[in-house]
Amino acid sequence: MKTYISPSQRPNTETVVAVGSFDGVHLGHQALLARLKERARHHRVPSVVYTFDPPTRVFTQGVEFLSTLPEKLDLLTRYGIDEVIAVPFNQEFASRPKEAFLDDLRLLRPLALVVGEDFHFGKGRAGGVGDLRAVCSDVVALPMHSLGDQDIKSTRVREMLATGDVEGAARFLGRHYDAQGVVVKGDQLGRTIGYPTANVRVPAGKALPLGVFAAKTFVGGVAYPGMANVGFRPTVNGRELRFEVHLFDFSDDLYGQEVQVKFWHFLRGEQRFSGLEALKAQLGRDAQAARTALED
């Protein structure tokens, strides 16, 4: 998949374009991508996703993001998109009039445009779906997708993660929620009680579920079952949020390696224990519950 940071960088050829933040690439986004690919096949031109880095609401409202740009690009590659234009979203870009955004789209020579029906653009969200027809007559505006009686939105996924509901988030995403980061050195308390952990550092602003979870950690493409903890470690008077994973039956050195952690099942919320022995006993119960959940 080819990637650019500006429409002016790509070749001067016809395309079909989908526009949006695509934060998390949830089921609603995937429906949009499916329509994009269908229209691109029909016209026999590349499928292009025009997206924003960071996602618009992350910049304008300060919310956490579901996917870093590398994670988003990985997902879009997996869904078979030909090209991505990930424009830097900053104050200058947010202040541009709607006409400037339409000029960007014209550079892509779209034969069809695919967006959500509530799509807006330009300073003050002045532009809407109707304005896109000044660029292309074939504008596909998909309605909000829902699951049961709930709209599928990135905001709802963030709300689920905030309560530890990783299984609910997985239903909206169509896959297990994951976080990618580099293993850094921690204080190594876990190994003293038989549960060594890898301290995973993710980019600031990444949405993480709070609690203890059954998880799978991917190292070099190989999946290892285990547990993940996201919290402040009150038993040892921790003061900063930590993201740690314990891999079952694993003893290799992970320092400096990038890992991907997929959250499988919520085990419990974070607790303060009377001491390390009580914590160790609970971790034993957590490990058994995690193994059962991952086997199921």
Quick recap:
This protein is an alpha/beta fold and 296 residues long. The protein is 30% helix and 28% strand.
Question: Could you characterize what this model shows?
Answer:
The protein is α/β, with parallel strands linked by helices. The chain has 2 domains: 2-151, Rossmann fold (3-Layer(aba) Sandwich); 176-295, Riboflavin kinase-like (Elongation Factor Tu (Ef-tu), domain 3), CATH 2.40.30.30. The protein contains 9 helices and 14 strands. Strands 1-4-3-2-5-6 form a 6-stranded parallel β-sheet, sandwiched between helices. Strands 9-10-13-12-11-14 form a 6-stranded antiparallel barrel. A two-stranded antiparallel ribbon has the order 7-8. The longest helix is centred in the last third of the chain and has 20 residues, at 276-295.
What is the topological layout?
Blueprint lengths: L1 E3 L10 E5 L7 H17 L3 E7 L2 H6 L7 H10 L4 E6 L2 H4 L3 H10 L2 E7 L12 H4 L6 E4 L3 E2 L2 E2 L2 H9 L3 H8 L4 E7 L13 E4 L9 E9 L2 E10 L10 E6 L10 E11 L7 H20 L1
Parallel strand pairs: 1-4, 2-3, 2-5, 3-4, 5-6
Antiparallel strand pairs: 7-8, 9-10, 9-14, 10-13, 11-12, 11-14, 12-13
Helix pairs in contact: 7-8
The total number of structural domains is 2
CATH topology of the largest domain: Rossmann fold
Question: Which residue ranges are poorly predicted, with pLDDT under 50 across at least 5 consecutive positions?
Answer: none
Regarding quaternary structure, what we see is single chain
